[in-house]
Structure formats: C-alpha cells, structure tokens
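Please decode residue identities from the backbone states below.
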C-alpha cells in the first residue's frame, strides 16, 4: 500500500504519526522510534498557558534532538488568545514545523473544567481556538486530535471535524473512542470512516487499536483514512515503526522480536534518557515505567520485572537484563496484547450545566492547567 500524507508543506512517508503521550514522547523516545522508521514524531502535550507564562519546566519540554529534521509540538489550551500566542512562540523561538492541538484529553481534571474532550461540545469556542491557532501559524501546518465525543449520547466528532476543516487545519486525527470509554473496549473504526466521508479537503487520520503493522493497513482499508496515529501500540515496541514502514512499502515483515532484540532496545532507550536528563538516576528512574511495556508477553517472571522497575543505575538494570535468555521468542498470542493505559469506562465529569450552554464562547476557567492524556 503506497500512501503519501501531505500536511501543508510537509510530506509524511509512510503516513504514520506518533501520538503525543505525556511522560513518554520526549526527545529520547522520539529519537529511539525514528531510528526504526520514518514518520512524523510529535512531542509530549505542552500546556499553552504554562508556555506563555514562562514556565521553565514547560520550556524544557520543547526540546528537540539533533536528528529531528521536522520539529513537531502538541499544544493544549482553551483560550484562543493564549493558544495563538503559544503557537507564535513555538514557531518563532523553537523553530517548530508542525503544531497539533489536543482536543481529546479524557482526564477528569481537564473535562471537569470543560477542556480536552469536553471542549468540542462548545463548537463556537472550539472553532475560535482552531482559527486562532491557524492564523498565528501562518504557513506552518496546524492539525487537531480529538475523540468521538463525551459519550455515546454526546458525539461531537463530525461537527468538530467540519469546524476544524473550515478553520483551515491541515489534518484531523480521530481517536475512535469517547472520553467515557477512556482506553477500554475496542476503538470504533467506523467513526473514522464516517469522518473521512464528511471531510472533503484535508486528510483524516485514524487512531485506536493499532498494535501491529497489519492493524494500520486494515484500518486504512476499512475507513479510507489518509494515515494512522500510533499511541499505546509502540510502548515497549518502538520497532513497530520499522514494521509500519515495511508494510506500507510492501516489504515482507520481519518476525516478532526475540527477547534479545527487546533487550537491545531497552539499553538504547535508557541511555537516551540518561543523556536527555543529564543525570543517570533521573534517566533510569524515568525508564522504569517502560520496563513492563517492553516485557509484555515475554515469560520473564514477575519478580524480575519488579526488580527492574526499582533500578537506580545503568549497572543494576544491565545486570538484570544479562540474566535473561536473549533467544526467548514472543509467544504468538502476545503480539496484540494491549500496552499502556487500560482504564475505563468511566462517567465523564463536566462543569455544571456544560451541555446546557453549548453556545457559550467563554474559555472555561482553569481548564488549561497542565495535565496528561489524549
């Protein structure tokens, strides 16, 4: 399947985008993934307000590796003026080549204030944010990532997609779950197809349940979407981008990774994190959450996993890895085992009367505090 994705002046070939994941898609992880295959690699979610207000912590998140020819940032915000200023800053100060807007965060601390996945339910405010970002970006492409809606009774993706298209975004990505679902159940790929059918001038990207390269090809065949966004499927499996590149190029896929291949990736990843943090302990500590993802499906034992997730030095982690049998294969049934978040379903917390005043264009108070999700 030969497909080339165009986002304004950018060409994304293969048509694969790394989903922004808080605490995960820092420059170390992006460098690791890029080493396996081409695509568009997006930063962690950045708070527009924190950036504009000069947060040092947030500024440190807008960091790119020397290998990042295309600098891509995802911003989260609820005030059109703040979002516009943040867009101007990441382009002017950091030389960003692509800006994505997060309108799909299902975190209760966001939705209870009307942000994230709750925001498309206020179409006037949603549209104002899209127009402000696109206007501030100039020739730099702006895309938006969203969910189907708040729950099955409040689906917003079609109206929001049309509003984003009208505002001039370069592409629309849909995580085919509602905020209520969080990460449970199966993604509703039919919604991606419906959005693709409704949008006439910009690419539509599909997101949800891409655990292996074949899933991406199946999604594109079933929905007609123009590209895929990969999130949890690459956690502990950065070589998924190699498989995706091979699949889109029509090349034969390589066999599932042996444990030795996984161990090599783990060693590279943790050292990239140490370099990023400029501190061995901080880098190793940041890597701990990845241990379980890398070892998903492999028979290595719960106690060894636990010990690896407690390591404080590279030597400790290397010693534990040396105890593993590198020839251990991945059991066939494990290739599609879910990774990352598994929570849900859970009722969505919204501001009082939020759905009764959908025409209100006022930015929700406090909704743009930093949080994770997507």
């Amino acid at each position: 399947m030969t497909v080339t994705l165009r986002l304004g002046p950018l060409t994304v070939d293969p048509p694969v985008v790394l989903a922004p994941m808080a605490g995960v898609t820092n420059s170390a992880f992006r460098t690791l993934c890029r080493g396996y295959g081409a695509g568009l690699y997006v930063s962690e979610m950045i708070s527009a307000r924190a950036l504009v207000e000069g947060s040092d912590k947030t500024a440190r998140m807008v960091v790119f590796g020397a290998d990042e020819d295309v600098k891509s940032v995802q911003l989260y915000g609820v005030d059109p003026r703040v979002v516009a200023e943040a867009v101007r800053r990441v382009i002017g100060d950091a030389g960003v080549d692509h800006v994505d807007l997060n309108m799909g965060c299902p975190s209760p601390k966001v939705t209870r204030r009307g942000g994230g996945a709750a925001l498309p339910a206020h179409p006037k405010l949603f549209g104002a944010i899209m127009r402000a970002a696109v206007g501030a970006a100039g020739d730099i492409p702006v895309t938006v990532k969203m969910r189907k809606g708040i729950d099955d009774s409040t689906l917003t993706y079609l109206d929001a997609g049309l509003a984003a298209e009208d505002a001039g975004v370069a592409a629309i990505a849909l995580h085919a779950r509602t905020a209520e679902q969080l990460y449970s159940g199966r993604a509703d790929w039919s919604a991606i197809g419906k959005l693709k059918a409704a949008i006439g001038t910009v690419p539509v990207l599909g997101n949800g349940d891409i655990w292996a390269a074949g899933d991406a090809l199946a999604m594109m065949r079933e929905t007609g979407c123009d590209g895929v966004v990969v999130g949890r499927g690459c956690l502990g499996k950065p070589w998924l981008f190699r498989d995706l590149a091979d699949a889109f190029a029509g090349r034969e896929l390589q066999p599932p990774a042996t444990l030795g291949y996984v161990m090599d990736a783990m060693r590279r990843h943790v050292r990239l994190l140490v370099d990023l943090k400029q501190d061995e302990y901080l880098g190793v500590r940041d890597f701990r959450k990845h241990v379980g993802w890398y070892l998903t499906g492999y028979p290595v034992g719960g106690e060894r996993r636990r010990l690896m997730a407690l390591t404080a030095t590279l030597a400790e982690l290397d010693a534990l890895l040396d105890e593993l049998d590198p020839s251990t294969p991945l059991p066939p049934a494990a290739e599609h085992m879910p990774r990352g978040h598994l929570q849900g379903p859970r009722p969505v917390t919204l501001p009082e009367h939020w759905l009764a005043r959908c025409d209100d264009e006022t930015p929700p108070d406090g909704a743009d505090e930093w949080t994770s999700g997507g």
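Observation: The longest strand covers residues 98-103.
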